[in-house]
Amino acid sequence: MKIAIISDIHGNLEALKATLKDIKKRQVNKIICLGDIIAKGIHAKECIELVKENCEIVIQGNCDRYFSMEHEGFELMPEQEQKRIKWNQSLINEEDRKYLLKLPFSYEFYMSGSLVRLFHATPTENNKAITNFDSIETKYKMFLPSANTISQDIADTIIYGHIHHPYMDKIYNKTLINIGSVGNSYDVVRNNLKDSNILETTKAFYLIIEGEYESKEYNSEMSFQFIKVPYNIEEELKNESKNIEKEYYRCELTQGMYRNMTAVNNNFKELGINIDKI
Fold first, then answer.
1. For 246-273, what is each residue's pLDDT tens digit?
2. 53 Cβ neighbours under 8 A, 6+ residues apart
C-alpha cells in the first residue's frame, strides 16, 4: 500500500492543489494529514474542504486548535495577538471550528512489521518543535507512548510535521521522519554565501510511505519517498491585501525563511549552537 502523508498546509490553497494533483498522479491508496490546515494564508476554508474530501485520516495541529478555540483571558492578550486570532477565525465558520477542535491527536498502524505512529509535533504536545539538531535523548522520547497515543507500545517509526523542515534520522533501530510542509516550507540554517537556489526550499513537501499495510511481519519491503512539488506562489499571493500579515507570509513563501528568526536563533543557542557561524 502507498500512503501519502501531508502536513502544515497553513491556508495555502495553490500548494495544496498542486500537492493533491501530484499525489493523484502517483496513484496512492490513501492520504493522511498531520494538521495545521489553517493559519497564515487566506484560504483556510477552502483548504479545510479539500482536506475533508481527500484525506482519510486528519490529525489536529497546534494552529488548528489555537485558532479555533475560545481563549480564556482573551482581552488580556497583546493587541496584535487578538487581531491574529480574530482574523484567522473570520476565515472559517462555526462548523469548521468544531471540525478542527474534534480532530484526533495521533494515529498509528503497522507497515511491514514496523509500528508507525503519526502526530503533529510530539507524542505529548502538538506545539513543541523537535528538530534534526536535537539530542539523541530528545529524539528517542519521540518514540515513547503517552496518554495521547492510541497504544502504549514504543513505536518503530515516527512521522511528524510542525517544524516545516523535512529530514530523516535513524537511532536504536528506529526511524524518525519529519515530512516538511505543503504550504509553508522554510529552512532555518541560512547563509547568503552558501545558500542554493531558493526553489530548493519553497516548493510543497510531502512524504509517501509504501509497504505491507497492517502487517506485523518484517519479511516485506518498506520505503519512504520525500517529494517536493512546484506550485504557483504568485497566484497564491495575488490577493495578499486580504492578509493582515502579508509581509510575513510573502517572505516565508518566496524566501523560505521563518518570520521569527530571532526565536529560532535563541533555540539554537539553548542547544549550544551559534547559528551565525554555521
1. 999 999 999 998 887 667 677 777 777 7
2. none
Q: Which residue has the cell 516565508?
A: 252
Distance of CA 7 to the CA centre of its chain: 4
Residue boundaries of the structural domains of the chain? 2-277
Kindly provide the residue ranges of all beta strands, DSSP E only, lying in the chain, ordered along the sequence: 2-6, 30-33, 57-58, 106-111, 114-119, 157-160, 167-171, 174-178, 204-211, 222-229
- Looking at residue 213, what DSSP letter applies? B
C-alpha closest to that of 39 among 14, 17, 55, 61: 61
Task: Record the pTM.
Answer: 0.94
Strand partners, 109: 116
Name residue 32's beta-bridge partners. Answer: 5, 57
Residue pair 122/34 in contact (Cβ under 8 Å)? The answer is: no
Compute the Cα dihedral for 65, 271, 185, 172 and give only its sign: negative
Query: 2-277 in CATH: which number?
Result: 3.60.21.10
For residues 212-221, give the mean pLDDT: 95
